[in-house]
Write a structure and sequence with these properties.
Elements: E1 2-5, H1 9-18, E2 28-31, E3 37-38, E4 43-44, E5 50-56, E6 69-74, E7 95-100, E8 111-113, H2 118-126, E9 133-138, E10 144-150
């Protein structure tokens, strides 16, 4: 089996407190229009929720494949994801499942999926012993969504 990981709440709290992201850029504060993918609790925002938008760099070993991208989170601490499985709110959402090896390099097991049967796709990717993690990414924008690791 596997576990789905949201961005570490302590990291998000440090961004909220500092008001800047990993690159020193100011955090953008806004009211949700609805549908923004929240990386703190792995669900879509509802209209009117207070959010922050900031640059996030997934925690990979130093490698040429480290990337930074914009992510949304609640403006104040929330309860986090409702479980450790695939986010229910994001079933049916096409994603890129980017596999990484222990060096932090993209592994050839990387693929896109249409959002149906995500557990089977993830299990197939993680069956390769060289894959140590899979990052789910938004197809349209390429933004980081969450990380999946073996149990």
């Amino acid at each position: 089996m596997f576990t789905v990981h949201a961005i570490d709440p302590a990291h998000i709290e440090s961004v909220r407190t500092a008001g800047t992201d990993v690159s020193g850029h100011p955090v953008q504060r806004m009211e949700a229009e609805g549908g923004e993918p929240l990386r703190c609790c792995l669900r879509n925002a509802t209209a009117g929720e207070q959010l922050i938008l900031f640059g996030y760099e997934p925690l990979l070993p130093p490698s040429p494949y480290r990337e930074m991208g914009a992510v949304f989170a609640h403006a104040t601490r929330c309860d986090g994801p409702s479980g450790s499985g695939y986010p229910e709110a994001w079933r049916g959402r096409p994603q890129v499942l980017r596999a990484y090896d222990e060096r932090g390099w993209i592994h050839p097991a990387t693929r896109t999926h249409d959002g149906t049967a995500p557990e089977a796709e993830l299990a197939d990717i993680l069956a390769d012993p060289a894959v140590v993690r899979v990052d789910s990414r938004n197809i349209s924008y390429g933004c980081y969504m969450f990380t999946v690791t073996r149990d």
